[in-house]
């Protein structure tokens, strides 16, 4: 018997394939039309009482198919295991607050953001930015289908944003060089010569949009602190943020060691002062290894208890 996720994917895939062929559209463009029709109620799947996670996963599978069919460097999706880890961290760092505001400055189709929002369902509202017109349209209609409150902005996220400070920024940062040197000149992390690192600028922009005491959860290159502008980044973080955690992600998630990533957690200093939290350094396990996963979360929970991240239930 097919699961709800499989039924929903078959529904999305079938409709999108037919639209793609009939209208001569790319699969992702046809998927958007399918999602829009579903959200408007003109078509509907046979799956009954599907959860938000089942809907998100089905859309994710269809988006992945479209990305493989029309591969583009900036069309990438954050693996579910990373999204669930980010959701756990966002929940833990916000101390189980009943209402948490989120922001993703590089949302893509919104899969990472929606994974976190589903994890904290009913307790979040979010803002998100995406420069790609098709991806943000898919993100918008997905938000409608998931009934998740997200305000979306179609623009270059490194330009001025109409986004109020939030509790948590969460983002799988775009990696590479930022081509707009004139705009980059307004950032502390700009390169002295040539193009600046986009992922460094995204970190700086994100810190600007955090509340004091808020946290940034960033998916970053594993060699972030060994790169060409690492010294500059160290100086910026020393002045503008506190490093809370660096979690190495399982190598099996990536094509090669050159593409390996980590989770960097930063805190925007607040007025309360007091001792800085001890930096959590750990290797995240393979999410399919239940015993290793339980041990990892126990370690993170123990660290959180010792460093002022007790939840309301503690």
UniProtKB/TrEMBL annotation:
Keyword terms of this UniProt record: Methyltransferase, Transferase
Recorded GO MF terms: DNA binding; N-methyltransferase activity
Keyword Protein biosynthesis (UniProt): no
Cross-referenced CDD domains: AdoMet_MTases (cd02440)
Alphabetical list of Pfam families matching this protein: N6_Mtase, YtxK_like
Lineage top rank: taxon: Bacteria
Record domain YtxK-like N-terminal helical: where: 46-67
One GO BP annotation of this record: methylation
Signal peptide: none
DNA methylase adenine-specific domain residues: 96-286
Protein's recorded name: Site-specific DNA-methyltransferase (Adenine-specific)
Source organism of this protein record: Edaphobacillus lindanitolerans
